[in-house]
């Protein structure tokens, strides 16, 4: 761990939802390498959260797990209650500097096949949860803090096969824009990152071990390859740092230039 990395977020406390796997895991590990103490929030996979915390601590960083299943009424309150309890060894104020809304679910169904229950579930996790997580964070979030919402390229690309998922990310982008305006007077920046196809467990079934799928996914990006979790984590780390102090209300395309 370099001295420069430690300086970037040294002394900061970050919460990363969905922080135990895939993009969230990469974000948790990168923020920790940059010096932040990271609350790794997870919904169901306790073992994955424990593994992420262990990897961070073995690398010389600080992290702890926070459990709260998203998608139900009251989930944001329960998340912050769990955070308050777990963060006591690291802060005596319950304050937080960085909130990364990364947790999300997808629904691979076109309009004709999507059920009302499926629609409600994807909006509950991808839109309602971040909205109220931020609402509950406001008294805890220090002035000059950072909020980063993980959106998706599906918010700008026509993908009818995942129409509800794309709609949630469009709503999240609008949330980002309005929140940036509201929190600007406190020096809090609010930005989004919109990944394209990323090699994570979510895409493993159709992507990994399938050269044709890999080639097709890579061909969609101007940069000619499939994204990696670290590609997204590095952008989040920039937005969380002081280097991004004059950037707010923006959604950064992180698709590698998909369908330009």
Automatic annotation (TrEMBL):
The domain of life is Bacteria
**Domain Ketoreductase residues, every copy:** 12-196
- Pfam families found in the cross-reference section: adh_short_C2
PROSITE patterns listed in its UniProt record:
ADH_SHORT
Q: Which UniProt keywords apply?
A: Oxidoreductase
InterPro entries per the record?
A: KR_dom, NAD(P)-bd_dom_sf, Sc_DH/Rdtase_CS, SDR_fam
Q: Does the keyword Oxidoreductase apply?
A: yes
What family does this chain come from, according to its entry?
A: Belongs to the short-chain dehydrogenases/reductases (SDR) family.
Protein's recorded name = A-factor type gamma-butyrolactone 6-reductase ScbB
Q: Which organism is it from?
A: Yinghuangia aomiensis
């Amino acid at each position: 761990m370099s001295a420069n990395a430690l300086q970037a977020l040294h002394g900061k406390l970050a919460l990363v939802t969905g922080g135990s796997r895939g993009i969230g895991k990469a974000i948790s590990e990168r923020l920790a390498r940059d010096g932040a103490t990271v609350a790794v929030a997870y919904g169901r996979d306790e073992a994955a959260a424990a593994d992420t915390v262990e990897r961070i601590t073995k690398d010389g960083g600080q992290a702890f797990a926070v459990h709260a299943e998203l998608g139900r009424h009251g989930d944001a309150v329960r998340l912050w209650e769990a955070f308050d309890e777990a963060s006591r060894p690291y802060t005596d104020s319950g304050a937080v500097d960085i909130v990364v809304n990364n947790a999300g679910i997808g629904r691979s169904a076109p309009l004709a096949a999507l059920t009302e229950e499926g629609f409600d579930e994807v909006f509950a996790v991808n839109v309602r949860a971040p909205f109220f997580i931020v609402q509950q964070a406001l008294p805890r979030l220090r002035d000059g803090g950072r909020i980063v919402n993980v959106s998706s390229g599906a918010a700008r690309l026509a993908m009818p096969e995942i129409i509800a998922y794309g709609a949630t990310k469009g709503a999240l982008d609008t949330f980002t824009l309005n929140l940036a305006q509201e929190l600007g007077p406190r020096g809090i920046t609010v930005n989004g990152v919109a990944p394209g196809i990323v090699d994570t467990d979510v895409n493993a079934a159709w992507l990994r071990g399938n050269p044709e799928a890999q080639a097709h996914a890579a061909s969609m990006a101007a940069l000619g390859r499939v994204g990696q979790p670290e590609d997204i984590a590095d952008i989040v780390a920039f937005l969380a740092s002081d280097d991004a102090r004059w950037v707010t209300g923006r959604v950064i395309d992180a698709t590698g230039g998909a369908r330009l």
